[in-house]
Amino acid sequence: MMDRGPETLSPPAPLVLPTRPAVLSRMGWSAFVVALIVVCAVAPLLNLVVPEGSVFHMSDYAVALVGKIMCYAICALAMDLIWGYTGILSLGHGLFFALGGYAMGMYLMRQIGRDGNYKSDLPDFMVFLDWKTLPWHWTFSDSFLATLVLIVVVPGVVAFVFGYFAFRSRIKGVYFSIITQAMTFAAMLLFFRNETGFGGNNGFTDFKRILGIAIATPSMRMAIFVLTGLTLLGFYLFARWLVASKFGRVLQAIRDAETRVMFSGYNPIGYKLAIWTLSAVMCGVAGALYVPQVGIINPGEMSPANSIEIAIWTAVGGRASLIGPIVGAFLVNGAKSWLTVTAPEYWLYFLGALFIAVTLFLPNGVVGLVKKLWGKKA
Questions:
Q1: d(CA 318, CA 372)
Q2: Which listed residue, 122, 159, 250, 252, has the most CB atoms within 10 A of its CB?
Q3: Using N-to-C axis directions, what is the helix angle for 268-294 and 60-79, rounded to 10°?
Q4: Distance (Å, rounded) from C-alpha 105 to C-alpha 101?
């Protein structure tokens, strides 16, 4: 036999790491730019330039309605990050929305100055209750910069503390949802009390100025509208980037198999706590933008029903899609705006039936149905 000599080993194939997906596709960027133009140019033009008698005029009512729904859409987007991508269903996100709203409301109440009914430096409800000085938690309420910090810090700290103990105790599933609902209900009862210094059941209202400029002017209303739209688009872009990152992939792994994630060397508590706190901050920002547009904030915003509605918007639009919750917020609240005028007694029945129908027949929501039909057409 002939000696074949030593065999040569072929070099190993190079390791190919998965490429990070783009934040948006070409079509997605096109839609994003269109939405940006509509918010920053088209809506102001239709409201401020087009005369009221024109069919193309955008009324002040429409501006306030769409601005309010965009705030709701931010909450739905925040819910999708924790529920759709992490598997954590919260029924208490209305609390964080209200906390951001109260932080902004306190600043707006201080901006009233002596223009209130009692011509006092104190808010009217404090004069009515015969208070002589501001409570300690109103110390920085006259500073706009401090208010911006509080809008982020207060919901974030409350969410962090709650989440730290809840996640370390390994509370999951329906038990976590029930505890979050109990949390927001307890906070609502606390804010209803007059001695807490938050206006009791009436809350804050009769706002007049922001940064020294009258809120009721069309230009200021439109400025807040544009700011709300830019915030929604910014949060959407940030959420797209986040879920496509390594952090986002770990979140989805926690949603699908948290035990395997632990066996792989990751600590799910830190990831869950981070996305939980971020989601609460997003809701707080939405609440702060909501208050000057609707002109009131009261403990009713903390009701468990409001938190459940946030989950319904997310489910109707489509979980784990990011654009779905935004679509769901516009669809549900648009229907609510119409039905509460034409048939107010049937609105709750419609909402319940809609949620049941989506759960049974559209598990991926409206956006999932559109994608399915689009795929069949293609």
A1: 12
A2: 159
A3: 170
A4: 6
Distance between CA atoms of residues 36 and 32, nearest Å: 6
Query: Which of 157, 99, 106, 68 is CA-nearest to residue 285?
Result: 99
Of residues 144, 152, 98, the one with CA closest to residue 287: 98
What DSSP letter does each residue of 216-257 carry, written as one string? TSHHHHHHHHHHHHHHHHHHHHHHHHHHHSHHHHHHHHHHHH
pLDDT in tens, 324-342: 999 999 999 999 998 888 8
243, two tokens = 């879920």
CA distance 141 to 134: 10
Split the chain (378 residues) into runs of 10 and give each run's mean pLDDT: 55 65 89 96 96 92 96 98 96 96 96 89 91 92 96 98 96 94 96 93 93 92 97 97 95 94 92 98 98 95 93 94 96 91 84 84 88 74
Q: Which residue has the tokens 């149905």?
A: 369
CA–CA distance, 371 with 35 (Å, rounded to integer): 20
Q: Which two tokens stand for residue 93?
A: 């996100």
Task: Estimate to the nearest angstrom the gap between the alpha carbon of 276 and the chain centroid.
Answer: 12
Q: Are 305 and 117 a contacting pair, CB within 8 Å?
A: no
Of residues 288, 62, 58, 105, the one with CA closest to residue 208: 105
Six-digit token string for 27: 């079509």
Distance CA 44, CA 23 (A): 28
User: For a pLDDT cut of 90, what percent of the chain falls above it?
Assistant: 77
Closest CA to 23 of 234, 242, 235: 242
Angle between helices 218-244 and 26-37 (to 10 degrees): 160
> 135 by DSSP, 3-state: which?
coil
Q: Where are the alpha helices (DSSP H) in 16-88?
A: 26-37, 43-44, 60-79
